[in-house]
Amino acid sequence: MNTTTDTTPPARRRPWRDPRVRALTFQALALAAVVWFGWTLLDNTLTNMAERGISTGFGFLDEPAGFGILITLIPYDETMTYGRTFLVGLLNTLLVSGLGIAIATVLGFTVGIARLSSNWLIAKLALAYIEIFRNIPLLLQIFFWYFAVLQNLPSPRQSVTVGEAVFVNNRGLYLPEPIFQSGAGWVAAALAIGIAATVVLARLAKRRQDRTGRGLPVLWPGLTLIIGLPALVYALAGTPITWQLPALQGFNFRGGMAVLPELAALLTALAVYTAAFIAEIVRSGILSVDPGQVEAARALGLRPRLTLRLVVIPQAMRVIIPPLTSQYLNLTKNSSLATAIGYPDLVAVFMGTTLNQTGQAVEIVAMTMAVYLVISLSISSLMNVYNRAVALKER
Amino acid sequence: MSAASEHHPDLPPPRRQLGVLGWLRRNLFSTWYNSLLTLLAGYLLVRYAIPVINWALVEARFAGADASACDTEGACWLFVRERLGFFIYGFYPEALRWRVNIVFVLLAAAFAPQLIERFPGRRWLGLFGLTAFPVIALVLIRGGVLGLEAVPTADWGGLMLTLVLAYGGIFAALPVGTVLALGRRSDMPVIRGLSVVFIEVWRAVPLITVLFMASVMLPLFLPEGVNFDKLLRALIGIIMFQSAYMAEVVRGGLQAIPRGQYEAADALGLGYWRKMGLVILPQALKLVIPGIVNTFISLFKDTSLVLIIGLFDLLGTVQATIIDPAWSDVATEGYVFVAAVFWVFCFGLSRYSQDLERKLDTGHRER
Amino acid sequence: MKRLVSLLTSLGVVAALAASATVAAADNSTLATVKERGQLICGVNSGLPGFSATDADGNWAGLDVDFCRAVAAAIFDDPQKVRFVPLTAKERFTALQSGEIDVLSRNTTWTLTRDASLGVNFAGTTYYDGQGFLVKKSLGVDSARQLSGATVCVLAGTTTELNLADYFRKNGMEYNPLVLENSDQTISAFNAGRCDVLTSDQSQLNALRIKLPEPSAAKVLPEVISKEPLGPAVRQGDDQWYDIIKWTLFTLINAEELGVNSNNVADMQDADNPTIRRMLGSSGDMGEKLGLPADFGTRIIKHVGNYAEIYRRNVGADSPLELERGVNALWTDGGLMYAPPIR
Q: Which of B96, B141, B227, B335 to mutate to test the interface with C (most CBs of C within 10 A)?
């Protein structure tokens, strides 16, 4: 703060003594340096590529790819383009990240709460889990789940089976697949109606609670609506959903849904590793709630469950959300380790095979990094919105 | 004296709350629900821990002449013992490994005393570890000067390479990260903008893409004739990546310093660099040592990713040997060994950082 | 400011120390750079028995490795003056393009795309290979045509990935590709039963098969589904260097054809055959035209041997792979190995 000096300016202030001039010069220099640096890089790259006869541009995205991909969420075969491989890889990344985040959250919250359990054995087990899994490199855990566990699973012909419907072997986990026939739409509609009705009911209950202090039962009617209604429609519509069982045919199981070992190993490793961090976040979040809050709630006569739901969790969530966000981001980024075990995620398919076949490193790396940038920014802005919703509302 | 005021000794607590039984009752069987949990967890523990212990210790083979000694169902630790040299030094020439050993000893000498608070000359050793040590280590490991035979980086490997990457990464990421953090807290919009963009971009992308970029694209960025060695390229990638994380840690420290400190430094007429260098950073960095250690832990674990770009770090050397046909199915032993090494380092460091946190938490932080 | 300066200086010192040896000579000629460095830098496979692999003491050996040694022998009269840089399949072309290595000798298939759009030149073929399939005998399969529906392990970043897709599509069969990062992982996955088939160049399949706990339980199917001419490659834009690499290879092949080997090369110096004399440098100035010493042929054969010796030592009868010469025999023996005359 130089307000005092400003009122009595020295007779001759040399320009390089003036902080504003200095700041402007410094910034201009920094900007110039960055621009120069960027330009040099670009220039070098273009010169090098021209000199070495490397092709450039995004035209390759329309060329046929010519290689197969193990797991595809959208129709794909080797006659399709490199642009399509980009999409396939991107969707596979989103699949494993989405599932991983869901599993890691559930597991992490469970372990975090177990860590605070009054049961000594449970608390110690949770502690052991956290300390073991967060101190071992993720890549190693992925290798372990993939190579060491895979080695010990039986071949398809000796599969472990549960009621001839679920099979486990070294080709993956095979589950019955629902086949939707005409009429299945009604069941889906019933499910949607059930969920919507429950939401409305919950709103009503909350409004009544706010107005009169007396709630409405939500849990049981809600469950009935969500499960019972579709079940009723299912029966009335003549069981329009059938289950296709996996069966051994040739080398592999056909039919049914398959969770391939690559996906399973990657998911397990990501979830188990991230859950260890989430558990610590949950624990410190819960511990950050002032014990006085719990005591006050008890003094008001709230039962333990209500205390937890209405007093502890809302306050803990405020502490939990920001670090939780960065764990979600980490998980998404870590999913790129897929390439080490052959799960075809974006990095493996696009930055790996596609890059190799086309040799266009600059374009492909830039596209891949842009994708992660977009994913990161969207997750953090989503979490920011949520964070604002649960933030302390000071009146 | 009425009988009522007569002092009676305190009654002992009820029997059921004392001793082992009391402890069990309180901690394991307080409610029916807890009892159930205890029994279930205990059952699972016994069910799975016993076979693991059996495998790892009871039936394991620790000694023997060759692979044929591993004839039991247990672990074959003999494999790890036989290949230990490769796991620690990689392809580093056997006759020159004493040089690496000196570096290991120096490293331990510089940093192990940091764990003991009253160790004489602890600070000087730490200073040595951050200044002279890296130079000495580089000269010893790389050679090529002072009459030491040069060892190309392609021959570096194993635990040694892991430590080189981790130490080199943190050593460079700390100053770069500090500069970035200062940039992000700067009053100058251009500097702030550039820092924010740099930090956010590097934090958003996975390390593996950074490593790919360093190994595949960096050569394209450089002018004709200038080239870095592969290890250095990987290291540059790691440093860029890690300094962005480091910047956020340091920024946390800078924000925790009360405004008064900034104003006091201004009042003393200190310029920006002296204000930061003499007043703010010493306090801020001290405050974030636990954060720095945590960043180091994650960096240390992340170094294992270099195996994907074809460097033989500890995990890489093990990965390369477990398929040796001379040993049948030693994958689990190999992975468990690597896991144990990483675990010891990371767990030790995390304990250290927790300790520091407790010690440094002097209520300095603004809430 | 002082602090920043000292900080930057210390950083700079470290960086300079680390980078000191990495700035190459300004002269654009690869040969001059190599001579000045006193060492050839050669990109090889990080571990493929028979082609390039390290033994327990860290010494490199293999067919690709010996080719690099031959080039070093031609330039320095010392086959040990080579530094080997192990490369993954993904990195190999960038490493060559960027000048990290002088020559790429890493079982690399010569294709049009690579020749034309990657900025590299292939200098010939050191090994004619073809893609095949490795299966476990217990699978009960005798032909690749029976593989419909199989899970196939394949190495990332190779031509095999494309050939595989072409082959299965052409024959109307389905497959699941499991793409792994390095050949060690493919064999691990194959061994664990994650895939039914391992596909790669036939020479590699044989090399990988001996890494299995029970090599005899697996077999290579008879089908060869592609042409894979493997050979050394150099950067575009330095024709002298390109010629040196080409003629090192041709010298190896010509030497076999002319019956010159590492045992008789000293006696052959004054042989009656003028072609031999030209090759060994006892007459003519063949070396000078390439920018090499006149006796470069003698040096190569003296230190490394001719093509037949290299083949036998690394992949042929004297190696664990025990591969037949097959198409890699000389053209005079019904094979494809044919070198232009040294004249």
A: B227
B304 and A30 in contact by Cβ < 8 A? no
Q: Distance between CA A294 and CA A311 in Å, rounded? A: 7
Cβ atoms within 10 Å of A313's Cβ, excluding its own: 16
For residue B4, the tally of other CB atoms under 10 A from its CB is 5
Question: Using CA atoms, how far apart are residues A359 and A52, in angstroms rounded to an integer?
Answer: 12
Residue C57 near chain B (CB below 8 Å):
yes
B319-358 confidence digits (pLDDT tens): 877 766 667 677 788 888 999 999 998 998 888 888 877 7
Tell me the two tokens of residue C61: 């050996």
pLDDT digits (tens, 9 = 90+) for A178-210: 777 777 778 888 888 888 888 888 888 888 888
Structure tokens at C130: 């073809």
The 10 Å Cβ neighbour count of residue A315 is: 18
Nearest residue to C52 (alpha-carbon basis) of C64, C68, C69, C67: C64
CA distance C23 to C99: 11
- Structure confidence at residue B2 as a pLDDT band (50, 70, 90): low
The topology under which CATH files domain A50-157+260-395 is MetI-like fold (1.10.3720)
Give chain C's domains with CATH numbers.
30-128+230-333 (3.40.190.10), 131-226 (3.40.190.10)
User: Could you tell me the domains of chain B?
Assistant: 15-58 (no CATH), 68-92+151-360 (1.10.3720.10)
The CA distance from C295 to the nearest CA of chain B, in Å, is 30
The single-letter DSSP state of residue C197 is: E
Residue C108 · residue C230 · CB < 8 Å: yes
- Interchain contact, A44 vs B223, CB within 8 Å: yes
Calpha distance C51→A82 (Å, rounded): 32
CB-CB neighbors (< 8 A) of C95 in chain B: 219
SS3 B201: helix
Cβ-based contacts of A131 with chain B (< 8 Å): 347
Bridge partners (DSSP) listed for residue C150: C175
CB contact under 8 A, C117 and A352: no
**Min CA distance, C26 vs chain B (Å)?**
7
